[in-house]
Amino acid sequence: MGRKQDKMNFFEKLKEKFQFILQNTKLLVLVLSGLGLIFILCIVLAAVQCNSAGKRKQISVGEETFAPSDDFIFTGDNTLTQDYYYSREVNEKWSQEDIDEWFTPVNPDSVESLSKSNDFLINDLMGAAP
Questions:
Q1: Cβ count within 10 A of residue 119
Q2: Which of 21, 34, 40, 130 is most exposed by smallest CB count within 10 Å?
Q3: How many CA atoms lie within 13 A of 26 on its CB side?
Q4: What is the per-residue pLDDT across 38-69, written as a single tens digit (0 to 9) for each?
Q5: Do the Cβ atoms of 47 and 54 come closer than 8 Å?
Q6: Distance, first Cα to last Cα, the chain
Q7: 22 CB contacts (<8 Å, ≥6 apart)?
Q8: Residues contacting residue 70 through CB under 8 Å, at least 6 positions apart
Q9: What is the pTM of this model?
């Protein structure tokens, strides 16, 4: 009977220690349990993915020949751009009206700023080159 009593005391002490740990560290136990479940879920998903990777279905696409619904009409020459060039009036010199509408005078400060930013980009690219 002494041995049986010792075993009972051992299990009761173990049960008391386990309950003490659970009561004092509920958050830690919950976090560790959650991490364990996530880890097990990842292992299961990896196993399923590895298992299904070799079983991919191959889709075969049948060969289909092209059958036009109408006859192809070829004009013989491409005159679209040539017609455009011939119909456009080419002036030898811009009129003041065209200058005011299309030309933007260059600001020396903006040219200098553009030059510096381009130099910076070139130096950055050249610095990265081996």
A1: 10
A2: 130
A3: 1
A4: 999 999 998 888 877 666 667 777 788 878 88
A5: no
A6: 84
A7: 29
A8: none
A9: 0.28
**Length of the chain (residues):** 130
3-state secondary structure the chain: CHHHHHHHHHHHHHHHHHHHHHHHCHHHHHHHHHHHHHHHHHHHHHHHHHHHHCCCCCCCCCCCCCCCCCCCCCCCCCCHHHHHHHHCCCCCCCCHHHHHHHCCCCCHHHHHHHHHHHHHHHHHHHHHCC
CA distance 6 to 12: 10
Contact 122, 113 (CB under 8 A): no
How many Å apart are CA 34 and CA 41, to the nearest integer?
Answer: 10
Q: Using alpha carbons only, what angle is made at residue 126 by residues 125 and 130, rounded to the nearest 5 degrees?
A: 110
What is d(CA 11, CA 5) in angstroms, rounded to the nearest whole number?
Answer: 10
d(CA 25, CA 2): 34
